[in-house]
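Chain A, query sequence.
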Amino acid sequence: MNSELIIGRSSELEMVLIEDMVSRHHAKITTTDSEIFIEDLGSTNGTFVNGEKITSCKLKEGDRILIGTSIVKLVFEEYDGTQPPPAPISTSPLGGASIEDVRISPLSGQNGRVSQQGPQHTSGTNSGVLSGLLDQLSLPDLLQLFGSSKKSGCLFITTPAQTEGRIYLKEGRVYGAVINGNYDVPSDRTFYRMITWKQGTFLLDTMATQEFANPIDESVESMLMEAMRIIDEMDALGADVPSYDATFHITVTLTPKLSDLSKDELNIFQLALNEPTMEFILTHSELDDIETTKVVLSLLHNQYMEVANAK
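Chain A, predicted structure.
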């Protein structure tokens, strides 16, 4: 406390971020006895706190600061005065930009060439790479930050079960999305499906592009409003909602009667018989994802099938 930390590209600073989007003296974090403040130092590309461009503001625990392609997250840590002070850190997008916290210890990073597949897809490079964990930074928060800073590229999301999703951006606007290379599902439906994912890793490669036959043409703000509605409705369904990676076991000897099922339940049950995975059911259901999930939960609760595992 009662100190200041200057962030920028200049090598003599306490936090050095070596990239073109960061000014030599970009921003300053100042602490008092009980409060923490951040001030933009007239940088070229600006400083963002929780997606909003600021000149100066007070910070609180959990706030996320975007500087260039680095995200700084403010976290609380007990300090008893006996630990050595943290050493300065230097990061470079060529080595993988990372999420930092104010203890200046990197939470994650990414090196190496990005493997990419799909039609008319350009190759990714090491430059402009930003990576981290979804439980540290949610997809809505990420997209709000990227929208405010007008980022372009591909946001790669990988779940713990190795399902891969991709969200493509151009100057902060989402224009396409795909899961596991399935380009037959409309991008907007795919986007809203991914927005509910809460665990896994993310990586933004600012060099990756993709063409879509029917690109999304909505503002990030309107899409995030709809995303929040979907997240709230999914959360309201309870903790038993199967993950996108879930597979099901169909009971061979059924105790409940098929004649008791509604038309929608019969259709979803037939999809589960064809391929007992949540991904297949969501992709081929005639209902929207919320209604499909409600039917799946009904089939599970009434013991027509059960969750086997996550792939």
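The CA atoms of residues 189 and 234 lie 15 Å apart. The first strand starts at residue 4 and ends at 8.
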